[in-house]
Amino acid sequence: MSAYAHPERLVTADWLSAHLGAPGLAIVESDEDVLLYDVGHIPGAVKVDWHTDLNDPTVRDYIDGQQFAALMDRKGIARDDTVVIYGDKSNWWAAYALWVFTLFGHPDVRLLNGGRDLWLAERRDTTLEVPDKTSTGYPVVQRNDGPIRAYKDDVLDILGNQPLIDVRSPDEYTGKRTHMPEYPEEGVLRGGHIPTARSIPWSKAVDESGRFRSREELEELYGFLNPDDKTVVYCRIGERSSHTWFVLTHLLGKPGVRNYDGSWTEWATPCACRSSREKIREPCPSDESARAVGRGGVRLRRSPGPGQAEAAVGIRRRTPSTARRARGTGHGASARMPVPAVLAR
């Protein structure tokens, strides 16, 4: 059996058990169910809440370098620490946290293979004690989105030219549902998928225990990818696609993989804004007209014109170097759902 491309990005439960309390090791629990940490966690682990810790509530973007440094300082994590992240549901949200850590270039961040569920299934040690951490003076490092994060314009640029993978459930991909079966129908205004996207649900990459499948199995699952492809992955708000990003980047060694964290929630929202005199609307890229892009058609105009609509409603033009004001980062409609300006007035 072939080893993963970057096996150092995974640790086993045996390895973590043997290294509990070791100097320079920081353990982070990040769950979809944010209450799980309080009912028992791995000894020494600190909690990172994907919603309140990793997202800026003001601009609906990820936290900036100063906020990340302050978070690491509070959690007792130093820049040169080995960080092992784990969570529930096959590390779904743990992979999201790892992806955010990577935005800030933390040198050594890993996943616990199998996550919280496997740790509990093997009856390993847990505790209710919250560790008392000391300040680490974590340095301020600005986020570097470019290598691993895709924006809407980036997706428009690759339609029909580079692979686009939709990691949601099949029903979400076809438009039968707008969310997973066990969740309420919320957060987007319509169903479907981005033109040219291929459906490969994220959960196919793990087995029944929650551990990642072998490299051979993963190579077969993603066998349609070419070595020089620059793949973009997406889901509903970017968390499930973080898991697939981890698989493609660290387990299969695919270069240039990016996570479109705006995902279907951003893509499916009407691109509308209103001035004081008239409504200005650009074509939505999931309309039939946008499908021509994937077939070699004419590129859509992406904005009403430099600063026109933005000035009319008093918002900044969104670019990869500015906050994602059109894009939420919380789970569910109230936190993540983009609010078109025409609805906000």
Q: In short, what is this structure?
A:
This protein is of the alpha/beta class and 345 residues long. The chain has 13 helices and 13 strands.
Write the layout of secondary structure elements.
Layout: E1 10-11, H1 13-19, E2 25-29, E3 46-47, E4 55-56, E5 61-62, H2 65-74, E6 82-86, H3 92-103, E7 109-112, H4 115-121, H5 152-158, E8 164-166, H6 170-174, E9 198-199, H7 215-221, E10 232-234, H8 239-251, E11 258-259, H9 263-267, E12 272-274, E13 279-281, H10 288-294, H11 308-313, H12 333-336, H13 341-344
Parallel strand pairs: 1-7, 2-3, 2-6, 6-7, 8-9, 8-10, 10-11
Antiparallel strand pairs: 4-5, 12-13
Helix pairs in contact: 3-8
At the fourth CATH level, what is the homologous superfamily of the largest domain? Answer: Rhodanese-like domain
| Major sheet attributes | 5 strands, parallel
Class computed from helices, strands and strand pairing: alpha/beta
Number of domains: 3
CATH architectural designation of the largest domain: 3-Layer(aba) Sandwich
Catalytic activity: thiosulfate + hydrogen cyanide = thiocyanate + sulfite + 2 H(+)
Protein name: Sulfurtransferase
Keywords: Repeat, Transferase
GO molecular function: thiosulfate-cyanide sulfurtransferase activity
